[in-house]
## 1
Amino acid sequence: MSLDQAAHKPHEALAALLADDMGRVNDLIAARMASEHAPRIPEVTAHLVGAGGKRLRPLLTLATAQLCGYEGPYHVHLAATVEFIHTATLLHDDVVDESAQRRGRPTANLLWDNKSSVLVGDYLFSRAFQLMVETGSLRVLDILANASATIAEGEVLQLTAAQDLATDESIYLQVVRGKTAALFSAATEVGGVIARADEAHVKALFDYGDALGIAFQIVDDLLDYQGDTAATGKNVGDDFRERKLTLPLIKAVAKADTEERAFWVRTIEKGKQEDGDLETALELLNRHGALEDTRQDALKWAQDAKDALADLPDHEIKTLLIDLADYVVARIS
């Protein structure tokens, strides 16, 4: 079941509740992705922005700002900033991963070329920093600049860790915090900061975003081995075929005997995969309880996200954020 197929969709309820603000965010994105001198920039950006997506990260910024009682204009700038950073990283990721499809459509690097994707991504990062500066908050600039650096760091770490059997759960967590959770936690934290919420509440919002992002990625990695292809848009075992050492594999490798380790060395480290290897991998994952252990980890992070909000004031948005944490893991519960 995909996020868009569940009966109760907290992100859609959030989008409906924040529709006016989200409209302003979309208008600002459209205005700032324009380029007087390089028409390819809005072409490439519009292709990706127009592909849909749930706009979850900017929604989180709008939601947390409203939850903390913010009444100024700059939550819109921050939400657009978060979306620009996210879109820039997608453009760069598709080049790095040599992807041909995203959200069911051809990727920008396929339709144009790698150079255009990288350079337009750079442009969007620059636009994001312009938007941050307009808020007049050095602290916001610090949070989002750190998140941008952490994202890049996580992607580079993944390059070296993805096919190295020495990669353990702590390194995996570092990668996930970089590639996924850093932008979630920045998106939720800056909402509290711009609203001048007290420090305990700002920390709680950061912790919520961090745990939510980690749960989100672990679920994604788990569904690669036991998801419904029609629902996820991915073939079962894509990560295995791409030799990505995600959490289920890390758990299985940690429990492997000599013969099993030789199998992982051949298929993941050396990339010498043969017919039937995916079935063997799935059998080893099940034999060592790696899939169930991964599921439990995702559920634990979702619970951590909910627990982080405990001391925040009761509010319709708080309820939806709690529901969102449950919703992220609903596909594996």
Note: The beta strands are 101-102, 105-106.
## 2
Amino acid sequence: MVVVQTIWHELIAFLGISQIIEICKTGNYKVLLTLNGIFSAISPLIPLLLLIEIGRAIFYKRFKIEDYKMPFFIFVANRFISRFLSIAAVAFCIGVLEKYALLSTNMKWYWFIYGYIVWEFSHFIYHYLGHKVRIFWCLHSTHHAPESMNLSVTYAHFFLEAPYADVIRTSICILMGVNPPLLFLIMFIDGTWGAFIHVGENLIKDGRLGFLNKIILTPSHHRVHHAKNPLYMDTNFCNLLNIWDKVFHTYQDERRDMHIEYGISREVNPNNFFDVYFGELYYLWKDIVKAPGLKNKLLYIVMPPGWSHTGDHKTAKVVKQAFIEEEKAAMAAASQPMPVAASGAA
């Protein structure tokens, strides 16, 4: 009976409908007019879209259990391991840093715009470091390991990534004066959009979303971010506003002539939980052990993925530059006029 109740509570928590159920039980529907009530009504959106996505895939006979199996296992594991770590990290940063804020904000609309721009900057910093520092990539790579894109991928994270991300994002926002109520509102909006942009082609075929593709970061942009194509590596780090990707030249549109290949550059067994979850930590450890000298061992921890003490680097920057040069050479060759054969006398 306890097991059944536990499963039921976990299911309710996953669907995000616990507060809706409570409102229905009490009959106090006026709560829906409050900010918490609005959050309660929106929370089931992503799980509902995930179920619709799976349902459409089954209906059109495109459903593959392997596309959803590993994110599900990771979600279950994280529910047991890290339920309260992220909340504690946010609370700690607020408690320690709020008194050092550069300015004071409130819930006015102009402070909301300011706060969102600051939040997006802090998200860019965390996300950029997650791709450019090897130890942080070990935490982030679990999210990139799935070889298809669908809403279940939003639940695939290493258990330490959320606390690490929230320490960076919360610290920057609090120091820049984004007060906690405003920060929590932005976190909710950005978290909902951040989950939605993982939507797969089973639900939305063209992730560009029409004119929105030129204004904000859409599922199309995030599909690019999850790609292992050389041109797409380490791009589109922002979540909703693309301002910082454009400032730091990491913005990349999806090309219609390039098929997206999802996953990470090393060979991964997508059906092996330990390879998906701990694989990058294992390979980092192997590199550290074989590296000569303390300096090289430490460099493997902080340098980008693909860095080598031998100088034979295979970082995203190196791989992308090689691809761009090859593509330019191919285009230049294709643009050369064909030589005209001389005609002989009859």
Note: The first helix runs from residue 2 to 15.
## 3
Amino acid sequence: MDVDRGTARDIEGFSAPGRVAEPGEGISMEELALAARNHGMPLEALRYELTPAGLHYVLVHYDIPAAEAADWRLTVGGRVRTPLRLDVVALRSYPSVTHRVTMECAGNGRARLTPRPVSQPWLVEAVGTAEWTGVPLRVLLEEAGVEPDAVEAVLTGADHGVERGVEQDYRRSLPLPVATGDDPEVLVAYAMNGAPLPPQHGHPVRLVVPGWYGMAHVKWLRDISLTSTPFTGFQQSVAYRYKQSADDPGEPVTHIAPRALMIPPGFPDFMTRARAVRPGRIGLEGRAWSGHAPVVRVEVSTDDGRTWHDAALAAPEGHPWAWRHWHTAWTATPGNHVLVARATDGDGRTQPVEQPWNRGGFGNNLVQRVPVLCVPEAG
């Protein structure tokens, strides 16, 4: 959208630039408000192969639009021969496909960085896996007819707001080979786990881009436009870049880095979530995933990374873009312990034990550490 110069100056003053927290600076009220609006998946929900919709992580950049399926229209235009205008009934008339996809926020783990980027303060719970049903994006683009000079598909959502001084609709783009490809197959989805999309997950229509971080999965999708030049909007060229400084143009955030998460064993302290277990043999389990290649190895340490052993990995079961279950066992002895899990994917990428830093806190796949106190049974 266009705004006049006066309005633009007002908006710039209204919306603060990005920054990094000062040494010792705590979580602000604004970050706390973001954390209240956006929620992660409780780690005990890793026991579910498919994350229930209400437990799947949620990030909403602006407001959840008041979107009614009966009034919704999705347009496909730009560098196409036959523009399309589809309502939800028309979209559902196409042959549907269902893909099981693990989705993770690009900022997952940001709050653990030092210095801390000031933004949504994720720990490690910004993830979930669902079965998404819809129409392959390539099918819609084939019907519209892609012009030879098209290079990108620009996807626009209905959510509107201000970010870093820029008033905008949420808008991202995909390279044309990704938008028209079948591995992964990008979906224009209208169902999650066999039910209509919930409002917070993009009702009535959203994009699902297997293997990519969540910023690419545009919710409340209302327009798809092919362009003959690369898209340079805020969410593409300013946000979601790996940067070391404010003036660094950075590199784009795209595919999900490998990660393993453990279901915290035992029982928690209410305030700290610290874990306690009893002595003896304890099963350890969790999920592991990567957007680059399937996970081929998960290692577990029960001594804070000094020694490692391989966990058993479940078969992938034909879902290359979904997490895999892993499990192992540990004999707990009285005292304090730190449990660690790390994943390696088929391209040889392994989670780091020391996290590289970037200004946005993106792609942070530092290994999960779970402190555990083993206490004897009460006498």
Note: Residues 5-252 form a domain with the Sulfite Oxidase; Chain A, domain 2 fold (CATH 3.90.420.10).
## 4
Amino acid sequence: MLEKIQEVLNSLSDLKASNAQELEAIRIKYLSKKGIINDLMSEFRNVAADQKREVGMKINELKTAVQDKINGLKQSVSTQEADQSDLDLTRTPYPIRLGTRHPISLVRNEIIDIFSRLGFSIADGPEVEDDWHVFSSLNFAPDHPARDMQDTFFVEQQPDIVLRTHTSSVQSRVMETTEPPIRVICPGRVYRNEAISARAHCFFHQIEGLYIDKDVSFTDLKQVLLTFAREMFGADTKIRLRPSYFPFTEPSAEMDISCNICGGTGCGFCKHTGWVEILGCGMVDPNVLEANGIDSNVYKGYAFGLGVERITNLKYQVSDLRLFSENDVRFLDEFTAAH
């Protein structure tokens, strides 16, 4: 009988269980009323009196070893089941590489930092907007082309709910709720119903600025934009302002910077003009001030707006706008050093 008990002890090392069902089968095999340990206890009655002490100790040793083995398998099965429950088959395989910020985020944060040092705070607003904040409060005529479904994504009509076409809607919300002086920048994603190409997309990112106070002049606007351009593109950067038209500013201008690739001498990127357009700006139209509850006889202001993708193109010389939203890892890896 001692040999039989030893054989059972030796067999314990080969026991394995990968789930709760297999573990329960092992327990029944050894510890149930019809199990191996119970059978040995039945045979123990027929053991000679002089061997009972030794055989009894061996059976107790076997029972303890079986219980320890089952407890060890139970812990192993529990760990496996926990690991399997947390298993996400869509995760990137190990080792996971350390990522970096997207180039749009890098440039956006740099622009925000520059204007923050100039005293501008950040304002945010909804991307799904009503007609009033996107168009009417900003002096857009009822028949303005921007209101057409060819140019704007309409969510619903009557009342008109649209995806904002510019972050000027945030400026309107700020003017409605804030007493001047106001000095804010409004970063965010905007949407326009345009054909997607290397130079245009149906969504992009803007940062618009607004400053309203007493005795604000176009000279103030020019100096702020010159400071921004030199902080962003280098101390030797020059700017020029060309007359333009926007419904919400008067007078209005487009701002160009001297080409940061050729230094203003002329190249293919700047179409051999030495200048590259980067933003629009102007003095806030009195109609906009009045529509948003600000007395235009007391206060004046300026506003500007720039596309983050446009600035990123200039800074990193990216030729295709679509690369920013395709999430090609090979493209994103190129900006690791810029982080």
Note: Strands lie at 121-122, 128-130, 154-156, 161-163, 182-191, 203-213, 239-246, 249-258, 275-284, 300-307.
